[in-house]
Amino acid sequence: MNVLVTVILTVQMLSALAMIGLILVQHGKGADMGAAFGSGGSGSLFGASGSANFLSRTTAILATIFFVCTLALAYFGNLRPASTGSVLEGAAVVAPVAADAAPAPVVPASGAAQIPSK
Q1: Cβ distance 36 to 100 under 8 Å?
Q2: CA of residue 59 relative to chain centroid, distance
Q3: Span 42-70, mean pLDDT?
Q4: What is the distance between the alpha carbons of residues 82 and 59, in angstroms, rounded to a whole number?
Q5: Contact call for residues 42 and 35 (beta carbons, < 8 A)
Q6: What is the per-residue pLDDT for 116?
Q7: CB atoms < 10 A from the CB of 15, how many?
Q8: How would DSSP label each residue in 27-68?
């Protein structure tokens, strides 16, 4: 079970990093208006409109993978054995407090007790 959770977490992190990279590569809606008036932004790797389709579809696929991995991690995170108790109950078993042990009386040190005898 731990191996499966580790694989799902790895896939989630890789999809998140890839999604961040794809979102940063995409241009905004306002960039099309600048390219229409000759600012030189129309020359791209995928052509004038090919990049929008490819990058947006890839981002949507990665977002779906990220969402499914998040739901799977939430499901596996809620699977617990029924016998586990509270953390405080476990702490009481580890360090029991003795009821008959009385604390030692605190005697204030006088000035004469602090002077060395020799």
Answers
A1: no
A2: 21
A3: 79
A4: 40
A5: yes
A6: 73
A7: 20
A8: --THHHHHHHTT-S----SS-SSHHHHHHHHHHHHHHHHHHH
- Write down the pTM of the prediction: 0.54
**Token match 């580890």: residue?**
94
Helix (H) or strand (E) holding 4: helix 2-25
Residue with tokens 């229409």: 36
Q: Is the dihedral of CA 23, 25, 26, 30 positive or negative?
A: positive
Helix (H, G, I), strand (E, B) or coil at 92: helix
At 85, the amino acid letter reads G
d(CA 65, CA 70): 9
In the predicted structure, residue 50 carries a pLDDT above the cut 60: no
Q: DSSP letter string over 69-81?
A: HHHHHHHHHH---
Task: For 62-118, write each residue's pLDDT tens digit.
Answer: 999 999 999 999 999 888 665 556 666 655 555 555 666 666 666 666 666 667 777
The SS3 call for residue 23 is helix
Kindly report the number of other CB atoms within 10 A of residue 14's CB atom: 14
